[in-house]
Amino acid sequence: MGCCSWSAWFHLGFSRAPLFLTMIIVLTYFVYCLTGYCETMPSPIAGSSPHQQQAAGEPGRARSGKPVQYQSALPALSTGQRQAVTAAAAANISVFNSFGTQKFPQAVIIGVKKGGTRALLEFLRIHPDVRAVGAEPHFFDRNYERGLNWYRNLMPRTLEGQITMEKTPSYFVTKEAPKRIFSMSKETKLIVVVRNPVTRAISDYTQTLSKNPGVPSFQMLTFKNMSTGLIDTSWSAIRIGIYAKHLENWLQYFPLSKILFVSGERLVTDPAGEMGRVQDFLGLKRVITDKHFYFNETKGFPCLKKPEGSSRPRCLGKSKGRTHPKIDMDVVLRLKDFYRPFNLKFYQMTGHNFGWE
Length: 357
Known about the structure:
By secondary structure, the chain is α/β, with parallel strands linked by helices. Helix content is 40%, strand content 11%. It has helices at 2-15, 17-34, 50-55, 79-90, 117-124, 148-152, 177-184, 197-211, 218-222, 236-239, 243-251, 264-269, 271-281, 329-350, and strands at 101-102, 107-111, 130-132, 157-158, 163-167, 189-194, 223-225, 230-231, 259-263, 293-296, 301-304. The chain has a 5-stranded parallel beta sheet with strand order 3-5-2-6-9. Strand 7 and strand 8 (230-231) form a beta hairpin. It is globular, with a radius of gyration of 27 Å. The termini are far apart.
């Protein structure tokens, strides 16, 4: 009789096994959701509009539309989370909505226009510990009234050990920007990419000319009066290059130790060397080296070598490397004379000779 009872119990239990298994799975799922991990389950990118992704600094994809490399972020996660992130990244799915936090940038590229800021930002984005906003937020010059919460919501999510960055070149010449950034955080690190102000002015004009072919000649815009040779400093292309004047405004709030001056010329001739200085300044391991660059003879500046899984090397867009219009040498020499005292003062203020003379 004992054997019969045992057999009956066994068959009854075996027949209910699928039910028990289902209950365990359902219970596990509810526990998983209650602990907050349901949010980490991947959802298709198509579920949100491109505008929403960009406005929120969506970190699942770069602004080029290419998947971001996630491996650098994985060490901070648990084994299960790493597996989920890796699987979703392979499927081109955004999974960072619940990982990391949106923070104010610890470093800002504040200038200068046509100095090489876009190249610097793209080079920096190779680094696994740098997360940057692709577009220029223009918060501290044009959108400050929107508030700091609006600004922070533009930032990509970062994990522990990663740096949040943004770049807006017009900050350098905006009078209110230093005080506003200082009010956000006096510990913010600032990067200024500077270039020979004469070459920078011509490059600035070239960009304007490409958008509006009907603008007056460079010579007409440069001088208030050609016969006297008086330079028109009200023209922004000229005014931006008076670096010493703008720097005085920043030094009222930030010490030189918080500002790194990057040579736009060396960013072209020795990108790895300049990037080494930038990585040191940001407290990053020197990951970006010579192996990442090659010089594009056609464009006249360095490009990034083809990364793994990519079909071609990465160069800056067609708007970069434009051919400059021919400028009369007399105009160039007069501009050099105009900028010389400002350049010398800038060298003295920064403790660095950029060799523009």
